[in-house]
Design brief:
This protein is of the alpha+beta class and 424 residues long. The chain has 2 domains: 10-214, Cytochrome Bc1 Complex, Chain A, domain 1; 237-415, Metalloenzyme, LuxS/M16 peptidase-like (Cytochrome Bc1 Complex, Chain A, domain 1, 2-Layer Sandwich), CATH 3.30.830. Helix content is 43%, strand content 18%. The chain contains 15 helices and 11 strands. Strands 1-2-6-3-5-4 form a 6-stranded mixed sheet, with helices on both faces. A 5-stranded mixed sheet has the order 7-11-8-10-9, sandwiched between helices. The longest helix is centred in the first third of the chain and has 20 residues, at 121-140. It starts with 9 loop residues before the first strand and ends in a 9-residue tail after the last strand. InterPro entries: Metalloenz_LuxS/M16 (IPR011249), MPP/UQCRC_Complex (IPR050361), Pept_M16_N (IPR011765), Peptidase_M16_C (IPR007863). Residues 20-167 form the Peptidase M16 N-terminal domain. Pfam families: Peptidase_M16, Peptidase_M16_C.
Length: 424
Amino acid sequence: MSTTENTPQVRMTTLPNGIRVVSQKIPGMQSAAVGIRNDSSTRNEPEDCAGASHFIEHLLFKGTPTRSADQITDEFNSIGARANAYTSQEEVFYYAVALASIIPATFDILADMFVNSFLPEKEVEKERAVVLQEILMNQDTPSRFIYNQFHQGFWQGHPLGTPILGTSESIGSIQRNRLMDYKLSHYLSSATIVSVAGNVEHDRMVEQAERTLGALPKGVPQVKKPQPGWRSAVGENRHYQRPLEQTLFYMGYPLPPAGNEHRHKLSVFNQILGTGMNSRLFREVRERRSLAYTVYSMMSSYTDSAALMIYAGTSADRAQEAVDVCHAEVLRFCEEKVSAEMLAAAKEQIRSARLMALDDCETQVRRISNTTSLLGAPEPVGASLEAIAAVTAEEVRDVARLLFSGVVPRVESVGTGEGPGLPR
């Protein structure tokens, strides 16, 4: 494995009001990306604000005292910037990709939205209808539906199990004043991370962030925590009957929270288990048994909980077999060490993917924002690759034994018939 001395370095500055500004300078790139993260989201919503974080994400594009919704769109368009946003259980992230030379102008628009959007009443009612359609779309899309149901089931009784979109009832009833109150109590300087990746100067972004985001209220968002002793709802299965051609399922195992000491070993484990055409799941489930077209594994990590999730789509009469095979592949790691060749290939796949991702500023601006939130500081790519390179076959086996031995996963499925049960 070659060295990574030339990977870009990261910098972080914390402003007096608590805003963190993180950057990853990549000289020579024409493009750059900038983002503003609100480090409080769905998991912190009170019951009367279910779905508020995502609803507000939509509404921040709908007007400030100096820019109408059309002007925001037109200004991004006129300078060649592409802006977007997303909401997860623990963050709302607003970002834009543009030429590096116009990132300052792009950031001015994002900052105005972030600080000054006042959620115009007319736009609230228009966007309410859009969000309600999004909820229906997720219900009508089987892969999205079963992902959401699994997430709510696995994290039932935990704030992470709150639906990101809310419900038709909660979105239909929440009023503009309540949304504005929620925004003002959660869009706080201490919960704000500005991130930039590309050929952009860190000190200039620090100065601009201090100037444009200085009006953010201070304080700390109230964080909802699970009841003491909470555990993920594993060892249970649930099936949703729908007239589909396939049965789609997720199965999941508990993991330590994001930033845990095993995270690099788990990255290697996940690569071998279910990432790409050389993974064990792909070879066994698809290539050898022809059980599925799509099968993969992924890790969903949060500040106080995480899960290893396996997804597959198969025929109803072979769904139980697919669940059994997937579970057997997880347990296989507990019984035997991976070969030196497989370990080296997995590390090289991770290394190559992360180095190639340096050419994608959008990916990098999300990554440094995310690692800043979860680890307390942005993680340099070189440091993560050095940690990956140090993982041994014994460590992969040992972490599998520690986390998966004797664990019965949660299984949630959608399709015809009664669906699969727990692995046998």
